[in-house]
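Archive entry: two folds, one per protein. Generate the first.
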Amino acid sequence: MKYICENNFMLRNISYNNQKIKREIEATVGSSFNIFERIKMKGIGSSNMEIIDCNKEIQNLLNLDNNSNKCNIEIRKKGIIIFFRVLLETYGLVIPFFKLKIFKGESNVYSLYMDKYFIKVLVKNKTNHNFFKKILKQRVSN
């Protein structure tokens, strides 16, 4: 099982039901919202977004296959998880809110930073623009 852990930076292979990794993720970003909270928030996940740039560790993973590099984001109670697929594996980049920095560069490009690690995504629809507003609102309420 491959994973990188450095302080609160967590890049995990979450393809398998590993209870140790699940506990680490929940300790870092909290548990998932229950069904009533999800309905009240009008959803906690984004649709697919194209990854246009990222740090070296993630780029090395994405270079393993020739598929288009896409990700989606899930909001948790104390942070977010950015999911992406490489070969037949699913990886999650776990970022707590206190480490998360979001920048909007060009009109459709958002950059998500945590320390020296980052992912830049291309947002093509209004739904995902609103999703980033939801992340910022959730971050402020924590």
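Generate the second and append.
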Amino acid sequence: MESRRKRSSQRLKWGCYILLLVVCTVLQTMPGLFQFGAAKPLWLLPLCLAVSAAEGEFAGAIFGAVCGLMWDYTAGRTVGMLALELMILCFGVSVVVQLYLKDTPSNFVLLAVVCALLVLSADWLFFYYMPGYAGAGERFLWVVLPSALMTAPGAGCSTVQCSASARNSR
């Protein structure tokens, strides 16, 4: 049986994760905040990746699905597409971090940028390129690539990741 202290610390930790989820959602949906042309940084993606790297595959996958649902809802999109993408990505990132990569901030930034590029490229493919919109290639160059690269600063100072790397360096 778990002790009360451990259960209360788990509740506090997951409460902080939910609070960070709300804060990142507000930052990501605020119009004009940190916008560079048409590109905006992603805040929810590094958060769900950091939680999945710190908590394990299944907890990370569930948190990724919740982040994806929140992102879908606030963006006014088809509900479930990003939830499924983020659930699979978070599960995969957790497994890769546990088996192959050291838990360092530079590896996390690299993973966050690659995952952002994957998510945004899938978005571009299904919503711009396949329907045949004019200027879809320009949109990839001027929106998708800068948005993926703008994810790196948000991933570099992720609270969960910095605390995990500080814990591992002791």
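Annotation attached to the second fold: DSSP finds seven helices and no strands in the chain. The radius of gyration is 16 Å.
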